[in-house]
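lol ok so funny story. i was supposed to be doing the assay writeup but got distracted and ended up predicting the structure for this chain instead. priorities right. anyway since i did it might as well share w the group, maybe its usefull for someone
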Amino acid sequence: MGANIDAAGNIEIDFTHQKIIDTSIVGNPTTWAETGFTVLSIMQRKRDVSIATDGNPVIHALKGRPKYSISARQVARLSRQALHIARRLGNQIAVDAIVVAPSSHRLNAYMATRLQRHVFPRAQIFDCLEKRTLGEIIAAIKSTPMSQRDRREAGRLLATLEKGARHASIEMKRVDKKLTRFVHPVKLKPTADLPPEGIAILLVEDIYSSGQTIRACVTELRTACQPSEINVLTLFSPLRTPTRNR
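and the output, tada:
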């Protein structure tokens, strides 16, 4: 299945092609290794030069953002297909705990619930991570000892961050890649239950973009829980997936 987008921004799932998104059973999930963890994407985002867009509008519609929309019927079709693909993972990876990646939308929590119910019924769900606010990130950068050169580069980032509301969360995809090393966008929720130490964790995220938020989540979980392994499951892949093993 692919997706069609009409002039009004309505999205329809289409069984006759794989444009914008690739939801085929044969080609998914895609898998690749990052440093210290493995990423599995249920479906692939694809760039379609004929209409100058990619799979991002589907995510925007699922999250209820302006410009794009998707009906409940189309969501159900997409959800069923995603579940068919996810079931292929049941015997491929060990999962003792499912951790919900922080998000302003409940899509990640919905994915985690569906995965627990239909694919990993013995796993417990943990909602123990949250995004840092701009105010927290600004304070952390200002208080971190660094060289004069790093301080100058960090100053460029601070000039941008200080234009935003201090209570807002940061979008890592909008941060210059050269400056992301100054930002740790995720923290543990102060009162949340954590997965027990030494178990296999599956981190659930809706989309892999820059990967910065995912890496920050993995770092927090490794430090706090010392898991035996961490896998990351995303609904959609990056537009260009690193070395794939299907």
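Residues 242-246 have pLDDT under 50 and may be disordered. Residues 133-183 form one domain.
back to the writeup now i swear
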